Amino acid sequence: MDKLVVDCQGRLSGSVEISGAKNAALPILMGCLLAETPVRLSNVPHLMDVTTTIQLLASMGVEIQFDEHLTIEIDASQVKEKEAPYELVKTMRASILVLGPLLGRFGEARVSLPGGCAIGSRPVNIHIEGMEKMGAEIVVEEGYIVAKSNGRLRGAEIVMDPVTVTGTENLLMAAVLAEGTTILRNAAREPEVTDLAEFLNEMGANITGLGTDTLVIEGVEHLMGVDYSVIPDRIEAGTYLAAAAITQSQLTVTNVNPEHLSIVLKKFEDAGADIFCSDTEVTLDMRNKTLKPVDIRTDPYPLFPTDMQAQFLVMNVLAEGESTIQETIFENRFMHVSELVRMGADITVEGNTAYVKGVKALFGAPVMATDLRASASLILAGLVAEGKTVINRVYHIDRGYELIEEKFHKLGAHIYRITD
Ligand code: EPU
Fold it and tell me: Which residue, 232, 253, 233, 231, is CA-closest to 241?
């Protein structure tokens, strides 16, 4: 199994191009199942989760081709299997996102019920209840969600509680081909949800209220393929900016949408960084400055993202003073804490809150990656820890960060992969 070795290297500098957003690319790829003619997607990141999604679509009979610019053409005109098997769902929970499009277009789907994962139990009851409200008959048999509808789904009014990102996406994709009007209340407002809705509208869907917590969908009869480019990954961008903050460096992230990062950039400023934005770039300057502690509470967009919690936790570990980090989205998203403590961090977790006391230095150690963002936080800690940090189970990182070693090398970091 691969390991990443990170060596303390002082400052970083330069610029890094941000890839397309994983959490937008996945639902958009699944959304291609709704189109009767081929879709061409660009700015899709090359990640394990994207490969898994392509395998999943291919297993259904969808034809997939890549051109020399790595644009992906997805032809779902012939879908033979309406199933997401356990073998693929167990490696990627987002596979549940085929349920809405399969049911909406074909009136049937068989999708392995995702289990819990390292960061929480992550039920999908809201996805299922919403589709039942739209007229689907759903049972769970032998670990599979088996869904059927007699003809087209029917529009319905659905209130989602709590706010759910993939739940909103799945119900959106079920509703676009339903008969009549669907109203999704308390919908997730994440930019990735809006990107999916814009993609569906370009294919011929009629969704209004984009970017708000009420999405109104007038069902249409057909959707057709389009050319579409996925939005940049705000979490990847935030992770590199956090690397600059932690190493007291100046660096620029390019191919980003700074609006998607508003609250994160505000928190970087609270931590003492200078931030400069243009339409598609953000520069963070932390040279000759001391990190200040910032209190964080994770919440649905537009508030602070849970996917940036681990990275800010490492910033706080190295800040002068005390801070609290409250995680309100997932019940078990502090697994990086025990690894950071092994590197010399002073953190105590009580319930959903981490209490952090800044330390002067961290020390390299063998550590274990437990989920995607936790893994990123261990790389960040490794950039400043004295000595070598060896991160085990790096497959978590490969699920969500494209070319992470290459990108860090370009910025001057010492980070390399070893294979046992
Ligand atoms: N929830 C329910 N019932 C449901 C659905 C969700 O109770 O039917 C709960 C969850 O257990 C959780 C909360 O609602 O406590 C929010 O979960 P949500 O459904 O919004 O999360 P998700 O859609 O499974 C997506 C991202 C995550 C990101 C979260 C929150 C994708 C593929 N995944 O997950 O990304 O952390 O939204 O923003 O879009 C990551 O990229 O590292 C990652 C974990």
Answer: 253
pTM of the model: 0.98
pLDDT at 404: 95
CB hemisphere CA count around 60 (13 angstroms)? 32
Tokens matching residue 219:
């069902």
- Here the tokens at position 116 are 């819990």
Mean pLDDT for back-to-back runs of 10 residues, the chain (420 residues): 86 97 98 98 95 96 89 97 94 95 98 84 94 97 95 97 98 98 98 98 98 98 98 98 98 98 98 98 97 98 98 98 97 94 98 98 94 94 96 90 95 91
Phi-psi region of 335 (alpha: psi -120 to 50; beta: other; left: phi over 0): alpha
Indicate whether residue 165 lines ligand 1 (CB < 6 A): yes
Report the residue among 329, 377, 398 best suited for mutation to probe ligand 1: largest number of ligand atoms under 8 A from its CB: 329
Q: Which atom of ligand 1 is nearest to the CA of 188?
A: 20
Q: What is the pLDDT of residue 67?
A: 83
Determine whether 187 is exposed, middle or buried from the number of CB atoms within 10 Å of its CB (0-12, 13-18, 19+): buried
| Dist. CA 228–CA 249, nearest whole Å | 35
For residue 311, the SS3 value is helix
93: which 2 tokens?
Answer: 């929970």
Closest to 53 measured CA to CA, from 82, 76, 84, 80: 84
Residue 64 CB burial class (10 angstroms; 0-12, 13-18, ≥19): middle
Secondary element (H or E) of residue 58 = helix 48-59
Helix axes 22-31, 191-202, angle to 10 degrees: 30
